[in-house]
């Protein structure tokens, strides 16, 4: 066999050559082209054998050429699938190598995330304590940074008798506003007070004499509680699902996996309670109860347009349709 392409295919299939994916893909293209060429030559020689113009003394040479080409074509027919299998194996090996690198990088990122979050949870109690005293701190700072004027009625202890350098806090108020912090179990340890909560329902007389409940911003508190509980429910569902998958993979219980993350027994119980959705149902019921209270406080003619809009907004927030 002196066909150059077949020789190269044989060497590759015998594993005698260092290869790249590009080498194999190029060789497959050459082998397919050679197979097509041999098929055309075999057909052309077969036509020569039946032509009356072909000299008989050429028959042996034509038959020999047909036999050689047929043999080479049959080799390529057998070897091409093996070349494609080799290409698939190389592609799989390249993909595995890439995925190995991706896995190692993901493990590294996960460990780094845990390292950073461990620091966060270690400091969480201290952070929450500082944040819970933040508003009082701002008020204290204001006493020294904005001295009361003589005409202002203030506590004598707050009227400064000396001048003091200005006190500054480097963290902007925008960082604290609306901030919610949760522990490993998803329980809220700090939540910035809702500035729009106006307190309980009160009654006021409209200009036309109709009594309507004053509910401007009244639903904000219970709706915010529901939304916070919904966020915690979603987070708990996701985290519990992750623990279930890890437990199944490692042959452990969900509780064991949770304990390995640093949760206490009490925190794990809180997580299980939240996963059931009962706290979320309670928060939803609180919104519905507030809606019923507001409606009951309205006159027999029902709530006015403004109150209706607020009720509908509260219903939409909890997914209520009635």
Secondary structure category: mainly alpha
Which sheet architecture does the biggest sheet show?
2 strands, antiparallel
Strand order of the largest sheet: 1-2
CA-based gyration radius: 40 Å
Strand runs, count: 4
Describe the global form.
elongated
Integer average pLDDT = 82
Can you characterise this structure?
It is a single chain. With 322 residues, this protein is mainly alpha-helical. Among the domains are: 1-115; 216-318. It has helices at 4-13, 21-50, 59-132, 134-145, 173-176, 220-250, 254-260, 265-276, 278-297, 305-318, and strands spanning 180-182, 188-191, 202-205, 211-214. The strands form 2 sheets. The protein has a two-stranded antiparallel sheet. Strands 3-4 form a two-stranded antiparallel ribbon. Helix 6 packs across helix 8 (265-276).
Which properties best describe this structure?
mainly alpha; two-stranded antiparallel sheet; 10 helices; elongated; 322 residues
Summarize the structure.
The protein is mainly alpha-helical and 322 residues long. The chain has helices at 4-13, 21-50, 59-132, 134-145, 173-176, 220-250, 254-260, 265-276, 278-297, 305-318, and strands spanning 180-182, 188-191, 202-205, 211-214.
């Amino acid at each position: 066999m002196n066909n150059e392409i077949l020789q190269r295919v044989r060497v590759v299939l015998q594993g005698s050559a260092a290869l790249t994916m590009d080498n194999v893909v190029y060789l497959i293209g050459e082998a397919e082209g050679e197979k097509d060429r041999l098929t055309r030559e075999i057909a052309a020689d077969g036509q020569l054998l039946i032509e009356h113009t072909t000299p008989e003394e050429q028959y042996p040479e034509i038959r020999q050429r047909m036999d050689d080409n047929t043999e080479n074509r049959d080799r390529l027919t057998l070897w091409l699938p093996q070349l494609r299998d080799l290409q698939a194996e190389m592609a799989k090996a390249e993909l595995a190598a890439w995925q190995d690198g991706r896995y190692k990088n993901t493990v590294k990122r996960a460990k780094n995330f845990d390292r950073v979050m461990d620091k966060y949870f270690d400091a969480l109690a201290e952070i929450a304590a500082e944040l819970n005293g933040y508003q009082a701190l701002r008020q204290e700072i204001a006493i020294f940074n904005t001295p009361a004027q003589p005409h202002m009625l203030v506590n004598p202890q707050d009227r400064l008798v000396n001048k003091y350098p200005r006190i500054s806090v480097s963290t902007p108020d925008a960082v604290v506003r609306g901030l919610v912090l949760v522990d490993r179990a998803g329980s809220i340890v700090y939540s910035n007070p809702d500035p729009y909560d106006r307190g309980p329902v009160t009654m006021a007389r409209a200009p036309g004499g109709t009594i309507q409940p004053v509910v401007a911003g009244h639903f904000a508190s219970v709706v915010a509680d529901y939304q916070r509980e919904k966020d915690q429910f979603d987070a708990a569902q996701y985290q519990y699902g992750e623990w279930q998958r890890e437990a199944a993979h490692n042959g452990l219980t969900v509780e064991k996996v949770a304990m390995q993350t640093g949760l206490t027994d009490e925190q794990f119980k809180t997580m299980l309670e939240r996963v059931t959705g009962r706290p979320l149902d309670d928060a939803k019921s609180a919104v519905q109860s507030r809606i019923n209270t507001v409606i009951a406080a309205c006159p027999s003619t029902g709530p006015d347009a403004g109150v209706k809009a607020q009720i509908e907004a509260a219903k939409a927030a909890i997914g209520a349709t009635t």
